[in-house]
């Protein structure tokens, strides 16, 4: 029998455990909602005034989105913020997406492997489990949605933040990651 695990305790410096865990910069995707469920269960019984905010991209959310049902079932007030750029790393705008589809080739050939369908409303997943979701496109809408999500303390909330898929990523430069003595 094979056992697979990630020994993060051996690679991450733990200064204040249970406050911040970032697996994304170590190449792990899709664990955000699962981590959020575990953290929210702890907060629910040990520190009810604390809130869990799970910030991840649309691609990472796709790996474990159905865990929002678990969060709803246990009435965990997780705030899931999905940075939706319609892609893995970079996405495409609707016009570019349509140009791929109009190429005459089957979409599995014409669409780049890093593309996700533009305009996906991840916020609508909240309704299927009796929760509230928000689709935001401006900082003001995000502020209002986050304020309302903070006021909700008996169920999860999903905030779908639509961002420009064609924008370039800012290079990652974390002292703790790039200048490590590991």
UniProtKB/TrEMBL annotation:
Q: Which UniProt keywords apply?
A: Lyase, Magnesium, Membrane, Metal-binding, Transmembrane, Transmembrane helix
Q: What class of enzyme is it?
A: lyase
| Gene3D superfamilies membership | 3.40.50.970
User: Which InterPro entries does the annotation name?
Assistant: HACL1-like (IPR045025), THDP-binding (IPR029061), TPP_enzyme_TPP-bd (IPR011766)
Q: Give EC number(s), comma-separated.
A: 4.1.2.63
Q: Which GO annotations describe the biological process of this protein?
A: fatty acid alpha-oxidation
Which CDD domains would you find in this protein's record?
TPP_BZL_OCoD_HPCL
Q: What is this protein called?
A: 2-hydroxyacyl-CoA lyase
**The species this protein was found in:** Rhipicephalus microplus
């Amino acid at each position: 029998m094979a056992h697979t695990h990630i020994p993060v305790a051996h690679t991450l410096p733990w200064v204040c455990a249970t406050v911040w865990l970032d697996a994304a910069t170590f190449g792990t995707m899709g664990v955000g909602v699962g981590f959020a469920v575990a953290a929210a269960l702890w907060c629910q019984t040990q520190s009810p005034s604390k809130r869990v905010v799970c910030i991840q991209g649309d691609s990472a959310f796709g790996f474990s989105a159905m865990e929002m049902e678990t969060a709803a079932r246990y009435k965990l007030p997780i705030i899931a913020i999905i940075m939706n750029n319609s892609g893995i790393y970079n996405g495409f705008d609707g016009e570019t997406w349509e140009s791929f589809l109009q190429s005459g080739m089957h979409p599995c050939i014409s669409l780049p492997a890093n593309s996700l369908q533009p305009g996906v409303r991840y916020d609508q997943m909240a309704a299927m489990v009796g929760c509230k979701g928000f689709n935001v496109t401006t900082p003001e809408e995000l502020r209002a949605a986050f304020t309302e999500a903070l006021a909700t303390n008996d169920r999860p909330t999903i905030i779908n933040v639509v961002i420009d898929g064609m924008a370039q990523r800012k290079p990652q430069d974390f002292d703790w990651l790039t200048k490590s003595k590991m």
